[in-house]
Amino acid sequence: MAARLAEEWFAICGGCEVTILDVGEALLDILPKLEIVHMPVIMDHKIYGQTGERTTMEIPEADVGIITGGIRNEEHKQLAQEMRKKCKTLVAMGSCACYGGVPALANLSTVEELYEKVYRGSVSTDSDGIPNQQIPALTDRVYAIHEVVPVDVKLPGCPTTPELFVQAVTALLEGKPFTLSGKSVCDECPFIREKKAVSTLKRPLEAIDFKAGEPMNTVRCVMEQGYLCLGPATKAGCGGSDGTPRCIRAYMPCRGCFGPLSDSANPMVDMMGALASVGLDAKQIPDRAATFNRFAGAQGRLRPTPTKGGKAS
Amino acid sequence: MTRTLVIQPVSRIEGHAKVTIQLDDSGNVQDTRVNVIELRGFEKFCIGRPVEEMPRITTRICGVCPWSHHLASGKAVDAVFGVEPPPAGRKLRELCNSIAYMEEHILHFYFLAGADFVMGPDADPSVRNVIGIVGKVPDVAKRVVRVRHMCAKMLEIIAGKSIHPDAVVPGGFSKPLLSSERDTVRKMADEAIDLAKFSIAFAKENIFPQYLDVVKSLGVIETGFLGTVKENGALNLYDGKLRLMSKNGSFVDFPYEKYTDYISEHIEPWSYLKFPYDKRAGKFSMDLDNSNGIYRANTLARINVCDFIDTPLAQAELEEFRKNFGRPAQLTLLYHWARLIELLYNAENVIRLLNDPEIVSTETRKKVVPRAARGVGCVEAPRGTLIHDYTTDENGILTNVNLIVGTTHNNAPINMSVKQAAKQVIKNGQYDQGILNRVEMAIRAYDPCFSCATHKFDGTIPVRIDIYNSDGRLVGTLAN
Question: In angstroms, how far is CA A6 from the centroid of its own chain?
């Protein structure tokens, strides 16, 4: 019998849903094993009934529930609770659902400051006030799903990978356990590390040192070249079946999209240690808090900063 | 009795919205609203970040069109630093843009909107989706899944990562294209153009003729249009000047940084999404009989504003389209047709760029130096003109950010088309799921991405349709 699947998306970009499509033709083999009962991006199940006849929202019962995106408004909170109630196993997919993701950079500001900028402080906007009719109120900050309801499986990544999605769904269908790698991005990076920086810290305003076509394993570690890379403080797995971390393939430093090494890890502390160990001074990095927690701003890792001179920046 | 119908969520679109339909005492449509129910606040939380990080942050506005944000952001950052990428850097960017377009137009036509036509507007909702299509036309579905995925693979080869890429950097592109990689991608491009040719031929034979009555009536409104053209008036999706066309076909051209002279954004209390309009009109009105300042973006707009297309197959399609529907063409469901012309243009453009020897030059990036400046970068995102506007201090730290995304331009037109469609299909209180789906079809034509459009706060625009009675009491809801 096919397993029933429900999917909801909250404060999202849709990249995790596209990642499911990036499973490619193999997806056509998985689909017959699933009965999708709710998934707004591809199907027309309505939460208040097909003709809007219900007064309370309803998600059908499902074996597996997947949520992408963090919680940004009151309706997300209610839907998360309804998903938890109706789904035997609940999966948080993508770094937004697991750690808040990029939208949790908003946790550096209060909700009032956000409204002020978007609806009053924009160069191209007529100033007519803040929308508040027929739309759900925003929550005080962005929450990861597990801060609101218990989550059984986390699939990190911005976006997560097709491989992780398939592994997790296959394990769930077969009733087998699913665990994530305990390694860091550096453990999977082919660049050479000699534990010593050859430059002081530089902003990424020029190309790293490499020759077109040279093997990846002869290029010097990005951080040892002096460019901030979050590889040491970031969970491995972004490279999928290829193995090489995705940003490294483009000769770009990691920015931490697979999230902290563990739920309790503090990327700020881990990165300070990693930078010091190759002789770099973390104090030279502009915008440290937001950079080290770019994908992990929920769970209290990012908070509003006191404003200077009484004026929101 | 008066009442309100709510469609929530609007489905088979990207992001969240709901539709609220208010019926009068006799059960006819009094008013409708497309409520966009999310906000992420990128414009706020990007302030304080180093500007060179923006192409890697703003991708997260949208995972469906991350390349559009990546590129618009890269161009805005170039402008802030005052640098022009080397020719290969520029061409690699445009190549990625065209490949990403193919992926997204295939996604929308076959996976999201196509089910309304292949399965039918009134089909059971449990099969009126891509899984239903897989069951009904398995060979087409398999080919479509394969080629869309192949486009993602092409982007991975060229840029390392297809969703939320990072290869577009201030001053160019981070990774040169090797000749061996070019050869691999070039073969894939042949398969992509075959699907592009097949798609428009398939639709012209099997879909558009069958639904011509629907095309001629559903969601029809008259508006102006906004798009990008090259200096010579040719369609371009990566670079050029903005062209704002009026209902009557007259137009004005202007450079990116002048957008605030031509576009204003109106706010309504019932949507987190703003309503851009043509500033020259003086005031904003969505009144169906007497609208003012409304223009549209996305495929139909671009096909209308361009004088011609500089690739032969797409130009032939444009000529046929104009012979049938004139310029500007106003019928809303023609967005789908225009989308398939663009799919063909992008497939041709990918091959043209890959055949250019300069694409494999190793000089792809220039060094940049921070300074205090303002920079505006635009591209045509699949869903419409995308504007990124950044201001930095002398250290290159952002002090101001303004974004107008493709779907936002279409906020007012979508609301108008929904009202027109609802008035047409809901009569005397009679409606069922198929009729309400027709209201959603008027939305789907615009391929809205409410994730993009709700970048403002949390960036997701959930769509929900609420139906209110004449006392303003909520009587029903539909949402995504």
Answer: 20
pLDDT of residue B12: 87
Contact, B447 vs B334, CB < 8 A? Answer: no
- Provide the H-helix boundaries in B33-172: 42-45, 54-57, 66-81, 87-106, 114-118, 130-136, 138-159
Residues of A in contact with B145 (CB under 8 A): 21, 24-25, 27-28
Cis-peptide into A159, omega within 30 deg: yes
DSSP B397: B
Using CA atoms, how far apart are residues B309 and B236, in angstroms rounded to an integer?
8
Query: Tens digits of per-residue pLDDT, B125-172?
Result: 888 988 888 889 999 999 999 999 999 999 999 999 999 999 999 999
Q: Do B368 and A206 touch (CB under 8 A)?
A: yes
Parse chain B into domains and list their residue ranges.
Answer: 223-354
pLDDT tens-digit series, residues B307-350: 999 999 999 999 999 999 999 999 999 999 999 999 999 999 99
Distance of CA A300 to the CA centre of its chain: 15
Evaluate if residue B109 carries a pLDDT over 80.
Answer: yes
Q: What domains lie within chain A, and their CATH numbers?
A: 3-174 (3.40.50.700), 181-299 (no CATH)
From the list B428, B427, B426, the residue with the least C-alpha distance to B465 is B426
In this complex, the residue of A47, A123, A246 whose CB is nearest that of residue B9 is: A47
**Rounded CA gap, B107 and B308, in Å?**
26
Which of B148, B175, B457 is the closest to A250 by Cβ? B175
> Residue B33 and residue A22: Cβ atoms within 8 Å?
no
Percentages helix, strand, coil for chain A (3-state, rounded to 5) are: 35, 15, 50
- Give residue B114's pLDDT band: very low, low, confident or very high (50, 70, 90): confident
β-bridge partners, B50: B397
Distance CA B439, CA B150 (A): 33
Number of CB pairs, chain A paired with chain B, less than 8 A apart: 325
> Which residues of chain B from 268 to 327 reach within 8 Å of chain A, CB to CB?
268-272, 274, 276, 284
Q: List the end-to-end C-alpha distance of chain B, in Å, as a whole number.
A: 27
Nearest chain B Cα to A51, which residue?
A: B433
Q: Do A45 and B11 touch (CB under 8 A)?
A: yes
Looking at A58-209, which runs of residues are DSSP E strands? 62-68, 71-73, 87-93, 138-143, 153-155
Give the residue among B73, B266, B61, B279 at the shortest CA–CA distance from B168.
Answer: B73
Q: What is the pLDDT of residues A59-81, one digit of tens each?
A: 999 999 999 999 999 999 999 99
The residue with tokens 């890792």 is: A301
**Mean per-residue pLDDT, B83-93:** 98
Asked if residues A178 and A165 have their Cβ atoms less than 8 Å apart, the reply is no
CA distance, residue A125 to nearest chain B CA (Å): 4
**CB–CB of B31/B50 below 8 Å?**
no
Burial of residue B247, with CB atoms counted within 10 A of its CB: 0-12 exposed, 13-18 middle, 19 or more buried: middle
Tokens 């597990």 -> residue: A146
Q: What is the pLDDT of residues A133-185, one digit of tens each?
A: 777 888 999 999 999 999 999 999 999 999 999 999 999 999 999 999 899 99
Q: How close, in Å, is residue B437 to chain A by CA atoms?
A: 9
Which A residues in the span 160-199 are in contact with B, Cβ-Cβ below 8 Å? none
Q: Beta strand pairing status for A34-38 and A3-9?
A: parallel
Consecutive H or E run containing B474: strand B474-479
A72 to A12, A104, A283, B8: CA distances (angstroms): 10, 9, 32, 18
Q: Please check whether residue B143 touches A, CB under 8 A.
A: no
Say yes or no: B466 contacts chain A, CB-CB below 8 A.
yes
ipTM confidence: 0.93
